[in-house]
Amino acid sequence: MADSGTIYTWEGLNKNGDRVKGEVPAENETSARAELRKNGVNVLKIKKKPKPLLGGGQKKIIPADIAYFLRQMTTMLQSGVPLVQAFEIVGRGNEKASMRDLIMQIKTDVEGGDTFATALSKHPKHFDDLVVNLVESGEQSGTLETLLDKIATYKEKTEALKAKIRKALFYPAAVIVVAIVVTAILLIYVVPQFESLFQGFGADLPVFTRMVINMSEFVQAWWWALLGGAVLAGFLFVQARQRLPKFDRFLDIAILRAPAFGPILRKAAVARFARTLSTMFAAGVPLVDALNSVSGATGNAVYREATERMRDETAAGGQLQWSMRNTAVFPNMVVQMVAIGEESGSLDTMLGKVADFYEEEVDNAVDSLSSLLEPLIMVVLGVLVGGLVIAMYLPIFHMGQVL
User: Fold this and answer.
1) Cα–Cα distance measured from residue 79 to residue 39, given in angstroms and rounded to the nearest whole number
2) For 392-402, what is the mean pLDDT?
3) Which region, left, alpha or beta, applies to residue 61 given φ > 0 means left and ψ of -120 to 50 means alpha?
4) What is the per-residue pLDDT across 6-51, written as a single tens digit (0 to 9) for each?
5) Within 316-346, where are the H helices?
6) Distance CA 249, CA 191 (A)
7) CA angle (178 as vertex; 176, 182 as ends), nearest 5
8) Is the per-residue pLDDT at 400 higher than 60?
9) Which residues have CB under 8 Å from 13's CB, separation 6+?
10) 48: nearest Cα among 56, 38, 40
11) By three-state DSSP, how is residue 42 classified?
């Protein structure tokens, strides 16, 4: 059987006898013909749409696609559209084939008798336990539309926060990459031209120029080793993060202590903690169970371990505010807001305000860092390029002084 997202191109006659054509997604050709007949089309030709030669593979589903899907489902259900029909409308309207496949698979599972939560749980790569548990809670309590709205908002806020962090990390990465590329081009292609020129001088070259020429010769001879070493180092780094928890924890601690970036990542971790816990608590999930889900959503080993300690202390009967204070990783303002929320019975509201505040703080910090790093890029590139140019022209300057 073909995928539920297979596209068929067709030609046929409509109810008025006019010749029409188009595309329709379906599980197989029979389903496509049945769908077209339902819409009053007498099919003359139908075939699978060929995949393009370039870029023919399905695009990868990203978290932003899932957030958009949940928002669309929320809108459909709030408008009174039945669940299965909502899948049909949202799925057919999605431009990404991989998302169409996913949505249609969920629709098929629901039509087969699965609950919405069970259908989502079959795709753990795209729907984590937090989303599945909240959807299940909504189905059981009859408030699926309300909880889907909360989940969609949570996903949108989370993705917006991740985008801000990526923006903060983009500039230093850009500086490093551009600096390496420019330096490599100069050392491999430009410096050798000057070296051949200097060979006819018959005089000793300045130390700085000799050092740059030696560096150029080394890069030309061992560029393959340098490139292979960089690739290997990157591979080992990724594997170490995935397979060595101690290394991952050490790296998370080091990142939080890093100048400029550390405070941003701390604020982001607090914002994710508050946003996730607020969403879970507002959905009626018990605090201990909510903390269990929140621990994996903070994005940092330090805050994950702190949340797990808070969960254990809360399960033993302690108050959330005191367990937060004992971890010593949450700002005093956050602890005070949580204390007010516990005493007033509005913990989800207070946590939501904390999340809003720290998300805005991250946004402002990223903008400030970007403004600071933009001139830094020019300085770094200027020093690299200028240094190499000066090294190449020093012998010429010396010749001019001698003459």
Assistant:
1) 23
2) 68
3) beta
4) 777 888 887 777 777 777 777 778 887 887 888 778 888 888 777 6
5) 320-327, 332-344
6) 43
7) 120
8) no
9) 19, 20, 41, 42, 44
10) 56
11) strand
d(CA 61, CA 152): 16
Tell me phi and psi for residue 19, to 5 degrees. -80, 125
Q: Estimate to the nearest angstrom the gap between the alpha carbon of 382 and the chain centroid.
A: 32
Q: Which amino acid is at 158?
A: T
Taking residues 176-194, what's their average pLDDT? 82
pLDDT at 114 over 90: no
Task: Read off the pLDDT band of 378 (50, 70, 90).
Answer: confident
pLDDT of residue 125: 86
Strands (E), 18-171: 19-26, 42-48
Q: Nearest to residue 348, comparing CAs of 298, 280, 268, 270?
A: 280
Report the alpha-carbon distance of residue 41 to residue 380 in Å, rounded. Answer: 65
Q: End-to-end alpha-carbon separation of the chain, Å?
A: 85
The Cα–Cα gap between 275 and 281 comes to: 10
pTM: 0.70
Sheet-wide strand order for 6-13 = 19-26, 6-13, 42-48
Kind of pairing between the strands at 19-26 and 6-13: antiparallel
* Residue 202 pLDDT exceeds 70: no
Q: Is the pLDDT of residue 142 over 90?
A: no
Q: What is the pLDDT of residue 17?
A: 78
Question: What tokens appear for 100 in the block?
Answer: 């169409």
pLDDT in tens, 228-245: 998 999 899 888 888 888
Amino acid type, 372: L
